[in-house]
Design brief:
18% of the residues lie in helices and 26% in strands. The protein is of the alpha+beta class and 151 residues long. Helix 2 links the parallel strand 4 and strand 5.
Length: 151
């Protein structure tokens, strides 16, 4: 079993607005690469629409987390890369639809000059902690693959 602790306001630090300053726990660490607004065929969803792109990105994150046996309840950190900080309200709305807002993950938002395709408005990466397991995830999503070679 994993227990995560969310500290929204450490002593001497102003409270976070919609995020926790510190999150810790024990278990298996899961890192999800930055996800963009691509559907399963690689087509961009929501060209020019930050809300539609954010919803697609969070769906992609959900699928990636599930492939590792994780969910948004296990997420301890989100990092947002946005081409315009004006997109943050749309991103927060999409985020709040999938996370427990009483226990938000730690978060960082960075405005970037551009992403790797000009149509993309945002990219989000996630870190999660799930219960420790010797066997890895309980299951892999259909079509998913993973490498279990010793390092």
């Amino acid at each position: 079993m994993t227990e995560l602790t969310h500290l929204r306001s450490p002593a001497g630090v102003a409270p976070g607005n919609g995020y926790s300053h510190v999150v810790w726990g024990t278990g298996r660490f899961v890192a999800v690469s930055g996800q963009c607004a691509f559907d399963e065929d690689g087509a961009i969803v929501g060209d020019g629409d930050p809300a539609a792109q954010a919803r697609q990105v969070f769906e992609n994150l959900r699928r990636c987390l599930a492939s590792a046996g994780a969910s948004f309840d296990d997420v301890v950190k989100l990092t947002y890369f946005v081409t315009d900080v004006a997109h943050l309200p749309a991103i927060r709305e999409a985020r709040d639809a999938v996370i427990d807002t009483s226990r938000p993950p730690a978060s960082s938002a960075v405005q970037v000059a551009a992403l790797f395709r000009p149509e993309l408005l945002l990219e989000i990466e996630a870190f999660a902690i799930t219960p420790a397991s010797d066997d890895g995830p309980d299951r892999v999503e259909p079509g998913g693959t993973f490498d279990t070679r010793p390092r």
